[in-house]
Amino acid sequence: MPRSLAMVVDRDGTIRKAEGSALEALGVPGEQALGRDALEVFRDWPPAVRCVRSALGGCPERTQLELRGIPIVLEAEPRLHDGHRDGALLVALEAVLPLFLRQLPGVVWATDRDLRITWALGRIPAEFAQTIVGTTIGEFVGTHDPDDPGIAHHRAALGGEPQTFSYPFRDRWFYVKIEPLRDDAGAPCGCVGTAVDVTERRRAMQQLESTVSLLNATLEATADGLLVVDSAGHVVAFNERFGRMWRLPEDALARRNDAELLDLAREQLGHPEDFLRGVQQLYEDPERESFDCLQFKDGRVFERYSRPQHVGQRVVGRVWSFRDVTERERNLGRTIFLGEATRLLASLDIEKALDALVLLAVPCLGENCVVELFEGATTRKLFARARDKSKPIRGTAPRAVTEGHPMLFADEGHSKMAVPLLVKGTAVGAITFTAPVARRYDREDLEFAQQLAERAALSVENARLYRDAQEALGARDEFLSVVAHEIRGPLTSIHLCAQTLRQRAGQSTETTRAVEIIEREDRRLGSFVDELLDVGHIRGGRFHFAFERVDLSEAVRGVAERLSDEVARARTTLSVDTDGPVLGEWDRFRIEQVVANLVSNAVKFSLGKPVEITVRAADGFAVLQVRDHGAGIPSEVRERIFLPFERAVSTRHFGGLGLGLYIARTIVGGLGGSIDVESKPDEGSTFTVRLPRQRAP
Amino acid sequence: MSGPVLLVDDDEDTRDALAMILEAEGFVVAQATDGDEAVAMMRAGLRPSLVLLDLMMPRLNGADALVWMKHDPEIARIPVIVLSGDMGGSDAAARAGADKFLRKPVELDAILGAVRDAVTGASIVRRAAPSPS
Question: Which end is more exposed in chain B, N or C (fewer Cβ atoms within 10 Å of the end residue's Cβ)?
Fold first, then answer.
């Protein structure tokens, strides 16, 4: 009990009431103080005497004195009765107590049965400083409402029940405790209360609550799963997403058993040892941040990030953040796969492409991939690959798929999907995938497989069309060859007979003319047939040369003479300009064919104007030029005339099969040379043939 | 040797035309429709003074017939002129031992010249021919 004193003295200084343990220290314990002269009691303490005298004189005074070594604060106040001085009230407390109370942001008080304050110390509001003693609780708090908690709690305490509550007063909040004051009989005769100003703390608490609420909302609002562990690895906190991502059951989460949760997580992973090792490393290096990817057995992929949690400088734990990137990785993987697959399928060699495709698909899309091509009702071609080569390849597509319907199904415990390769609504093949054990194919996987099947079907169709086109071309070439061959037989007979007739024509000019025409036409037919056969040989790779020493000048002169009739009929002139022999190693027959072709063309298109041939030797090359002054060849056509069946002019006026220049170019090319044309409209054309004189080894 | 000119060609019109020309020049002509028949005729004793041989024929074709001919020393001496529409035939013909190769359609002068050259020095049966005017 702190040393205290409460004393009432009358106007003469006689002690009328005295209470407190300090009385003993003053030498007047218990009742002995009553009736004594206060000034006398305090005679050993002059500051106290001064105080009492001052109060009796009407001025409150305060002093400090030492009572048995303990500092005591004495406060003396004048008492008034009807405006007249009526003595003084003395209160003494251990000096430290007011200091304590001044430090305490609050107030302590005592009341009587009527809730009138008999005693109060601490941060008393200024307006009550002089008058607090005697004020009722109600007057103090400013209400007479008996339901006001301040009053009600006092009453309850008076009833014998200690009270603890929070109370707002003048924009501050107080934490209040009230206890009953009991008399000697044990019955409540008043209250003792303490009120501590907890406004700041309350505000801090509210802010904390608000922060925590914000934090929780943030934790739950993120799409990432969050887990906080302490430095020993025990689970401290996590958000709902974390539980859901890792598929941890509610009860396991509630139990917060770290080992259990770790096991549940680990068994889902593709490489649990790596996972554990990674975690271990971080516990050994707590300051480190980490970032990696977790691969799950069932195909999920998580990005995992962590950083240490600090309080001040100290690491107190670690925060883990998990992001489900399965979708992203899947889409990325698919895009890359599809790009690569499309590239592979661009090949016209469909078998090679499909082989490469199944190679690509395993293990990327599944453990097994089987591609079937239907060729007729019963035959199927298979391209297959399995990740585990020891197992037999299984998985041809179910019937429904071969009829055009994509399917997800299960077979021998594996999830599978099969998609048809559709061309114009008919299935020309199918692709079947088998998933690894933990994985199940879903609608999205099936749609992706269909995209792949679309590309594959396109590729198959293209290959088929290409093959068909090649076959058609081959068939055409073959047909032309057969026709040409067949025609040749009759031409032989016609040729011989026409020549015989010419010899026997006699004097009749009419007969002679007729026979000459027959001969000419027969030669023309012969030349068409030769050209067709040559083209067939070129395209079939059966075009061969018989090399010998040829003098180009002589060959050209020979051809010019043979064509003299044709030249005359075209009413044009042909001049041959050679500069001595030009020898080379060529196929005589073919060279003559080229010359004849070029000269014949020039004459045909000469429009009556002269045609000139020049033969020169230059640097190991023989150069032949055939020049006409006819209509010329338009520039857009100039390259095309060397293609088979192409003409520079319309069919109706100039006839011919359009094969001559194609054959000529093939011959010249085969002899290691080149043939080019220069032409100006209305000025004519010049064809230049360059031939190496030595045969290339 | 004095024997006919043997024409071997599966085309009747070609044989007809050749026969007409050669007979007009005074040669005696025998005809075979394919290699088999030609070989049979020679096996039976025919010794032509010249064989005009087409290459592309059914059953035994010209090249094979030629090979057979060259195996028999007596028959190997008979000159052979190969007729063909095929350029490549010239190599095959030369390899098989033909004396000359003529490309179809043959020129009248070419065939007559080749036949005359081949039977030079041989006594042949000539019929009186009307002189050409």
Answer: C
